[in-house]
Amino acid sequence: MAEIIEKNTLFIDIERTLLKWDNTVIGAEELVSRLRDSGKRVKFHTDNSLISRKAYARRLTSNGIMAEEEDILNSAYVAAQHLYQNDISKAFTVGESGLIEELGRKDIKVTETARNTVVGLDRKFTYDKLSKVMDRSRKGKVFTLSNQRYFEKSSGLQPHQASINAAIREFTDTVNLGKPSEEFQDVFRDYFSYYPGNSVMIGDRKEDIVLGNELGMTTVAVMSGELNEEELKKAEGLEEPDYGLSSLHRLGKKII
């Protein structure tokens, strides 16, 4: 893995790679600090739409990983940018504060009168919300922000958005704006300044690996989340990472 030493930009997934929502993964603070001290650029990405980029910057910083809003790309921002670029000025939403904040910053009105629906992770998802999505799906599109099954708190695993998506797909097709969709890729390219041949994509899910491979980067799978050694051995094509590591701690040893 010595060749990764020559890469100068690293894009690290947040959930279950750096953070377990309310605590860092062991070694995360030291890794990012050492990378930056060695002159490397470190940026962050996530499919979790619960909080905004600004809130993620605060959360990372409070956990010892210095971050500014512009260092972070999340699926809520991707949704807001996609709707804005396609002249969609209002949307019905299933989601929490992060999604609503990012849509609002693009002047996209959150309203029940909208034809199109944006679905993020919603910890208060109800039958009533499902009915409202079904009703709107007959008139407009339903955009989802992640296919992730779990996120993790220090207390243990929590359901992510996949189960919500499954319920909605019982009655309509959806458009995924999360990783590794073309829409996420397009916004990623515009949002970050980088050279693919000099960059590394790091994550704990196959979606992270596909995203990095599609963007032409070196890809590193960290087995702290949904990926494990057995799945990596079976991975083919765009799902196959250049490297697989058992932990973030080992990543630090290999890169520096």
Tell me what you see in this structure.
By secondary structure, the chain is an alpha/beta fold. Helix content is 36%, strand content 20%. The chain is built from ten helices and 13 strands. It has helices at 28-37, 53-62, 75-85, 97-105, 127-137, 162-168, 182-191, 206-214, 229-234, 248-255, and strands at residues 9-13, 41-46, 72-74, 90-94, 109-110, 117-119, 142-144, 150-153, 156-159, 175-176, 199-203, 218-222, 243-245. A six-stranded parallel sheet has the order 3-2-1-11-12-13, with helices on both faces. It has a five-stranded parallel sheet with strand order 5-4-6-7-10, sandwiched between helices. A two-stranded antiparallel ribbon has the order 8-9. The protein is globular, with a radius of gyration of 18 Å. 45% of the residues are buried.
Q: What does this entry show, briefly?
A:
It contains 10 helices and 13 strands. With 256 residues, the chain is an alpha/beta fold.
Major beta sheet, strand line-up: 3-2-1-11-12-13
Shape: globular
- Structural class assignment: alpha/beta
Strand percentage: 15-25%
N- and C-termini, Cα separation: 10 Å
Percent of residues in helices comes to 25-40%
Radius of gyration: 18 Å
Number of helical segments with 4 or more residues: 10
Arithmetic mean of pLDDT = 91
Low-pLDDT parts are 1-5
Biggest sheet features: 6 strands, parallel
DSSP strand tally: 13
Task: State the order of secondary-structure elements, H for helix, E for strand.
Answer: EHEHEHEHEEHEEEHEHEHEHEH
